[in-house]
Amino acid sequence: MEPRADRAPLLPIFGTPMAVDGLCTHRVRSAQQHHFSKKDSDIPMRHPSRTAKALLAAAVLPLALAACSSGPTVQPSSAKTKQAKDPNAGLLTGAQLKKALAPASFFATGFAVDPSGARDSGTTYTAPSSSPAPKPDCSLLGGTSWITITGDSGVSFAQNDYISKNTSEDIAQEVDTYRGTTSTTVLKDLEKIATTCATFTDSDTHTKVKVTGATTPGLGDAAYTITLTNSAWQNGTTLIAVRAGTDVVSVMSTDGHDNGAATAKKLATRIVTSLKGEHQRV
Questions:
Q1: pTM score of the predicted model
Q2: I need a surface site. Which of 7, 42, 81, 166 has the fewest CB within 10 A?
């Protein structure tokens, strides 16, 4: 029986790519998988020649390779590397703190700055430290930089003091900047120290100095005042520490006839206001 001239030869049909045992292969349908009508089943199949088979294989291979190589495109990560946070971000340097100190015009006539007591940490920061002594050296309350009695060291500072050439009265001012919540710790430690150091011996007169302390409302975020009195002195001394954010203002005054209280409070208030201006310029 001659094959029908109106029917093209039947060729194998190739399906979609699929994975078999981890390999990418093509699923090829056999001739038996095609359905024919009874009429068509009598028609003999024409098998492709070797040349046709070679051409067919050459056409299939690129499709197989394309299917094996196809897959989701991996996009490069766009996540930015997080930089380490600067622990001194937002903190004032010694050079900036120096600008917050009260100028010479603030002090009464006759007061002049003591050059040996004027210093600051400059434009860089220093490593902070904390080494509170089990028993504080109470005599430190009798000098400038008395805030060091807490054992807490900040990252920057500025200080100076003014002395009256007529009466030898002394007014000292200092600002220290701390990281984190250390400024709060400093104020709390001062309260404990005022209780521990109820008295200490004055190195000049070798007499006892009485120490009293009290919280002071209305100054900065928190404030604490320590008053030193001695029967051998003509006037007592007032120490005030004020916390303003991460900064601690500490002043000392023997000016006047009220143990230096009025001048100390006026000076502390002035410095706190100036610090706000310096922070706004950062």
A1: 0.71
A2: 81
